[in-house]
Q: What sequence folds into this?
């Protein structure tokens, strides 16, 4: 008889972007020592996702197990631009340590950090071997960023063989459908809708549906979904960025959303692209002066 999965709701809510629900579900008694570490790892990743990286950095001490130390490193990397280089240096040092270098959580955090750095080959060095559903799902994201949906589809097939109904398998399927485009967009929308109905509607799922709507030219519906997502989490960078794009297509003012995005997430890709465009425009103007 299979043992009950005490941490299913902790994990599943995290994957769906329901971070507070994940934290609430973590109040589970009689966990094994390994389960306690896994639970604490997810709870701290939830805190990071909520923008509470400073809490994670102060809460995890130097004697914590490798998975928790890895999460602390992610918090340092994301919270403090000045500490990024030292965080990456520590990460590489740990990954080269035979005693801990193959730890699945450490490899996952390495993949997340190098994906942020747009260093896809370095990310794959640590994630490509897989080993967990999260590592396979991260591989899918990396391959999509590399415009290699063929490799992403191979990872998806591996995930489907392990557990076709797993939330990460469903999400990975939707991400690939979005990347492929065309008639697949509707299928992606239905996956996000199904997950919303099966579990709960989260900012992550609402953004997924909104992006599908924008691809299909339904910008009014996309705006409605994004406003709903904003009501759930007013600080979410993807909601703000998608709302900027949506408003531009609708001919509506987007400056408020963009100002919020720039203030809260100055390193977001959209902020960087707009800043680069403004600098190029200014340079072009100066050349005519």
A:
């Amino acid at each position: 008889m299979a043992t009950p999965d005490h941490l299913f709701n902790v994990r599943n809510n995290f994957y769906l972007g329901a971070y507070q629900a994940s934290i609430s579900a973590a109040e589970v008694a009689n966990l094994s020592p390994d389960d306690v570490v896994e639970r604490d790892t997810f709870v701290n990743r939830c805190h990071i996702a909520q923008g509470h990286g400073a809490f994670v950095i102060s809460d995890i001490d130097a004697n914590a197990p490798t998975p928790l130390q890895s999460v602390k490193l992610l918090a340092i990397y994301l919270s403090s631009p000045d500490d990024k280089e030292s965080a990456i240096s520590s990460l590489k040092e740990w990954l080269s340590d035979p005693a801990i270098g193959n730890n699945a959580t450490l490899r996952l955090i390495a993949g997340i950090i190098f994906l942020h750095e747009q260093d896809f080959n370095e990310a794959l060095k640590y994630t490509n071997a897989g080993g967990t559903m999260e590592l396979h799902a991260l591989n899918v994201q990396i391959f999509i960023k590399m415009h290699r949906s063929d490799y992403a589809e191979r990872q998806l097939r591996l995930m489907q063989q392990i557990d076709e109904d797993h939330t990460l398998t469903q999400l990975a399927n939707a991400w690939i459908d979005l990347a492929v485009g065309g008639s697949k967009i509707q299928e992606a929308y239905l996956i996000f809708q199904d997950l919303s109905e099966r579990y709960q509607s989260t900012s992550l799922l609402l953004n997924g549906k909104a992006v599908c709507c924008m691809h299909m030219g339904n910008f009014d519906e996309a705006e409605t979904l994004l406003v709903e997502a904003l009501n759930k989490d007013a600080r979410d960078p993807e909601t703000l960025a998608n709302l900027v794009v949506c408003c531009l297509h609708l001919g509506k003012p987007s400056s408020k959303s963009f100002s919020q995005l720039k203030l809260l997430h100055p390193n977001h890709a959209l902020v960087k692209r707009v800043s680069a465009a403004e600098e190029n425009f200014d340079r072009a103007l100066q050349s005519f002066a």
Observations:
- The chain has 17 helices and no strands.
